[in-house]
Structure prediction request, 600 residues.
Amino acid sequence: MAENKGIWVLGEVNNKGPLALTLELLTKAYELKETLKEELSCVLIGKDIGNASEKLFEYGADRVICVEDDSLEPFCEMQQGKILAFLCKQRMPSIIIAGATDRSKAVMAMCATSVGAGLTANCMDISIDSDTGRLLQTRPAYGGNLMATIVSEKMPQMATIRQGVFEAAPCLSKYSSNNEGEIEKIAVPQDLLQNPFHLEACDEIKKDESSPDYENAAIVLVAGRGIGDETSIKGLKRLSGLIGGVVGATRPVCDMGLLPHSAQIGQTGHIISPNVYMGFGVSGAAPHTIGIQGAKVMIGINTDKDAPIFDFVNYGFIADAKEVISSLIKRLEAKK
Amino acid sequence: MRIVCCIKQVPATDSVRFDPEKGTLIREGIRAEINPYDLFALEMAVSLKEASSSGSSEVIALSMGPPQAEEAIKEAVSRGADRGYLLCDKRFAGSDTLATSYILSQAIAHIGGADLVVCGRQTTDGDTAQVGPGIAMRLNAPCATGVLDASVSDDGIIAMKRVVDDKIYRIKCALPMVITVEIGANTPRMPSLKGKMRAKKMDIPVLDADTIGADEGRIGLQGSPTRLSSTYVPEFRGRHEVIECPSDEAADRILSLLKDFGAI
Prediction:
């Protein structure tokens, strides 16, 4: 176990370069590297991944390990998971982290199973235990009401991490000098270049133009069942326009057809981390709160003083959310 | 075609309440239900069986859990599964996703294998999405997560539409394989009266570790490399205050909060 060394970030790239999430993970992994004094590598597996390396070095990678092959499209988690497991058995890293994307979650699960390692999903934080040198993996449980810290007793220690929990920052000082990273192209055994999937078609999911960018919004106003009528939703949209926010909803409100399902905030919808979250008539059931715990400031308005949202928010107002909306609009419009 | 559908009984999310002072789950009032994601998996499994030209196709529901998880299997039968098995053994307790996928794959092998294993994309309690791919790796079968739609041809080729992050793939693959079904992929049918009657009478065989030939070192806590090290209740950043006030006053305070945070 002691011989396992090296921190790996399973990276993802598209035609524009590495994903923001990959850079976030590299930035965090660089911190781990400074504590552990182990090499930091970014692993890329896919077709057409060629030109991403420079940016990866800029964000702290010492090495980029590439497995590039035409057979790697269409995406096949078994193939990519086996390739990651192959690299892992060969190099024996101590840590592998990846983004909590569909792609990486599936590849990491395949790899962890293949090498018999533990894997923690959807972490909101990772750090090194100063006593043991182990990777502490913290993830939400019970809708974020509880945070659980997990350690793995086997190497490599593997975790997937949500987007937006770490900030990406290039470590320029190091690379403005001369320290060029190394790109390593690995040839894997032929049987790993067999993709069992036959591609018929692949389409990008077009982002609905009218659909707001919930993940990057600074202010999110959420409609809950307590304001579940058309007039109130209209009011909320108007209020949102006045303060430059976006309007989302809890699942029941979407189910009622008042807002599209693409507006759903929570476990099965958007996971948001705005500067300000405002819940109007939101009760605060676990499936919703899991999606809002990244918010910097949370405000909740509900008539029910026992609503769980009041255990969760920073500022709770036991008041009629519909009236509060009208009153906010009145005040903001009067100022204009 | 033999389809195994893996399901899990979970606490109904809207019944989960939490004691913020003690940092524990409030056990009273928790209802159990089939993991909502698994209902989409079950519906896909049952419709694939119905669309199959072979008269001998069947859907077998498989679940690991405490004795009361038998209800989940019976509910699956009432929703169209032909039969089911409950994996129940004290030694399974504490299994993480690695051990769980081992137990499920051992059980699938024990009952004679499967042409297609259908799982929900993830559970509402564990939320990992790791067990489906884990089973696939253990069965050495391809896996497609996030399946929206699937059909199987007579020659054992499955055609699928699947979502992977920002892409929709239409792919084909030879069976056997494992799929995990995306939430909202279909409209799960309600339990039928006939199904309920059948479920009520049905004996659900219980499989333990010995029956499925599971290695004790690979199940339960012993077989689980991940360990819970500590838990904590997230601290409120800044403040935590709840006030009851007229709506005008609430509006004033909210506006001044928004100003303080530089939001307006």
Observations:
- Residues 214-334 of chain A form a domain with the Rossmann fold fold (CATH 3.40.50.1220).
